[in-house]
Amino acid sequence: MKKIFGSFFALLLAAALSACGGGGDSGGGAETGASGPTALTFVGMDIAYDQTEVTAAAGQPIEVTFRNEGTLEHNWLIIGTNATPEEATEEDALAGTAMGVLPPGEEKSIEFTLPAGEYTYVCTVPGHAVAGMLGTLTVE
User: Fold this and answer.
1) Where are the beta strands (DSSP E) in the chain?
2) What is the pLDDT of residues 69-93, one digit of tens each?
3) What is the pTM of this model?
4) Selecting from 2.60.40.420, 2.60.34.10, 2.40.50.90, 3.40.50.150, what CATH number does the domain 26-139 have?
5) Does 126 score more than 90 pLDDT?
């Protein structure tokens, strides 16, 4: 009887722990707090972002943290629909989505809200987007 009870208790404990588990990947580095913004963290390296596809909720605050771990200057911004990634400059950024150019080792955070859509984020340091330093933020 003790052996059955012990096995049952172990099974019950395992089920409880798995129900409280992490729940897996939240989709492209996004973390949503109960009352806070969706937090997205990007790392810039030479010459790439650590993530090229991320998702966030429409109409909700999005906090982007960009950390430059490369040896070159980099930036992170979302370009408007009239700009092409390869030719974009900081002036092409959607309002409130530009970090400015960060030297190696620097980090910066910004917060903004976007309607549903697909947005391109890019490093506008000359030659970086052409080399592949860009990605897609899907807001749904």
Assistant:
1) 31-32, 38-45, 48-49, 53-56, 61-68, 77-79, 107-113, 117-122, 134-139
2) 999 999 999 999 999 999 999 999 9
3) 0.76
4) 2.60.40.420
5) yes
